[in-house]
Q: What sequence folds into this?
């Protein structure tokens, strides 16, 4: 299998649905298969990066621990649509990891495969 | 071209599964094929053999099955998503001491790696219901 660039787009908040967890799981599996994986956080997906998150009251595991392990899977590029942060009153100091601002259209064009969650 | 379809939507709740199925059925008319359909998230409910829709609504179970038989389409279901939502094959039912299985015969429980594998090896990937 030749290595391809995979972009996982996360568009949902980390609590209230399983979207972001299942998207992150796909990212980890892609990286474990030896592919180059980048993440793009758009819309409410930027909430996934907020620091000091608690585990959900519904018994869900939360996604913060998965964000923490991304470097161990060589997932280095965490990209954010700056407008999504601004619109939600967030700044980079509110986030748990270093991020890169991108133009989503350009980022998508750089990748071979785009999976949206 | 060989297409991989990814289905996130439960049948009869959202348009996603219905659109994916119609898309898959339309592909051969243009010389293409849905080689793999991967069911993830609530899409795994498409794989229940117990689906019993009223007669005046489309029968998705029957049509997925016909698609698989006519075009040798692999209907792959994420095992982690499926088990926690109650979609189990005979092997998993026995392993977990359950009194019955619920996976329709044309579907196959598989790992999430198969989703990535389908995306990497097919000509085109189309997502339904994100």
A:
């Amino acid at each position: 299998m030749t290595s391809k660039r995979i972009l996982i787009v996360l568009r949902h908040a980390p609590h209230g649905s399983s979207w972001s967890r299942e998207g992150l799981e796909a990212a980890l599996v892609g990286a474990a298969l030896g592919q180059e994986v980048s993440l793009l956080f758009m819309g409410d997906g930027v909430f996934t990066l907020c620091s000091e998150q608690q585990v959900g009251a519904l018994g869900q595991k939360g996604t913060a621990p998965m964000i923490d392990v991304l470097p161990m899977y060589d997932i280095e590029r965490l990209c954010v649509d700056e407008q999504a942060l601004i619109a939600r009153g967030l700044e980079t100091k509110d986030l748990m990891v270093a991020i890169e601002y991108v133009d989503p259209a350009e980022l998508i064009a750089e990748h071979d495969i785009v999976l949206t969650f | 071209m060989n297409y991989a379809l990814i289905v996130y939507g439960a049948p009869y709740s959202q348009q996603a599964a219905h659109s994916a199925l119609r898309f898959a059925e339309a592909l051969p008319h243009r010389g293409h094929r849905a080689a793999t359909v991967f069911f993830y998230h609530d899409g795994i409910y498409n794989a229940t053999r117990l689906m019993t829709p009223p007669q005046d609504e489309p029968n998705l179970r029957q049509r997925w099955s016909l698609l698989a038989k006519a075009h040798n389409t692999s209907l792959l279901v994420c095992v982690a998503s499926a088990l926690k939502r109650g979609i189990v094959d005979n092997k998993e039912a026995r392993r977990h001491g359950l009194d019955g299985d619920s996976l329709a015969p044309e579907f196959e429980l598989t790992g999430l790696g198969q989703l990535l594998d389908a995306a990497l090896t097919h000509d085109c990937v189309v997502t339904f219901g994100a």
